Amino acid sequence: ETGVTQTPRHLVMGMTNKKSLKCEQHLGHNAMYWYKQSAKKPLELMFVYSLEERVENNSVPSRFSPECPNSSHLFLHLHTLQPEDSALYLCASSQDLGQGNSYTFGSGTRLTVV
Amino acid sequence: EDQVTQSPEALRLQEGESSSLNCSYTVSGLRGLFWYRQDPGKGPEFLFTLYSAGEEKEKERLKATLTKKESFLHITAPKPEDSATYLCAVLGGSARQLTFGSGTQLTVLP
Question: pLDDT by residue (tens digit) across A91-104?
Fold first, then answer.
């Protein structure tokens, strides 16, 4: 298991459901990220937190709502999703913002919206 | 806006058949170029960082090189366990996060 743990690994939800993705890191990193990975597309940055403060929100629909209660935990709350939101959602952390050589990814949550 | 283009999209090699993956980038003031490996069902795993043109890094059968416009990931005598998707990312200018390419899916056949 890597230093970044994501749960659940798989999630199937209906368009009217509400669910949450959880990410936890025990690396002492200061920055945490949510990415969306769709087939044959670049990793799409969704949200960035630095020291529990949101610093980036890349025009993500409001049906995705992040929460960072402390520097070790990151959540992605989901509600009224669309089928096109089906993807692999990856959480990552790094020592500081943009420090690519310390980026550590979780194994992701495979989300299917039906 | 930083841009990263990786080619080919997919590559199939026979075991022992050396080849190279390409990462072309456009960035204002490169602060770092990063290579990651991603296995199915897992998140990307860091391989290399390159900072300036002419720099090279090696790890087992992999060697990464950098010019002012592109980076190559050379794979020498690959083995089936090298099969994975290889991602390239850049950090440029005043950006605070990485820009990723779409990746190259490498399959090495025994």
Answer: 999 999 888 888 99
